[in-house]
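User: Please predict the structure of the protein below. I'd like the answer in structure-token form so I can feed it into my own downstream comparison script.

Assistant: Understood. Taking the following sequence of 115 residues as input:
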Amino acid sequence: MKGENPEYSESNIKKTVWGDITHLADGRWSTVWQLEFSVPHSERTIDVISDSAVGFDAVLKINGRRGTLNIVTREHAMSGVNYPMTYKCFRIVNDDIGEIWKIQGRPRDWYAPFR
């Protein structure tokens, strides 16, 4: 828009994609995130975070440069209670396991907590 502050320009908006959501038979929700790492890693499965108070469990499966982060939640996958925990998972994976290059095929920096 004309006269728009470039810091707040709509051209700076990046369309992100949420992980694949499934409603499980036991009433919980699963969200599967596809990650790509900057460098390959050995195949392994890692418990990233578990918080019984909010009903949130995250497990990462890595194979080479690809990772699958499976988050199972008590509340609906898109519930506001899950956003901070999901972004915390991204930060833990990136800082403690391996640098994330892409999330859901989009640049990592398009997603909180990296933007």
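That's the full token string. Residues 55 and 81 are 10 Å apart (CA to CA).
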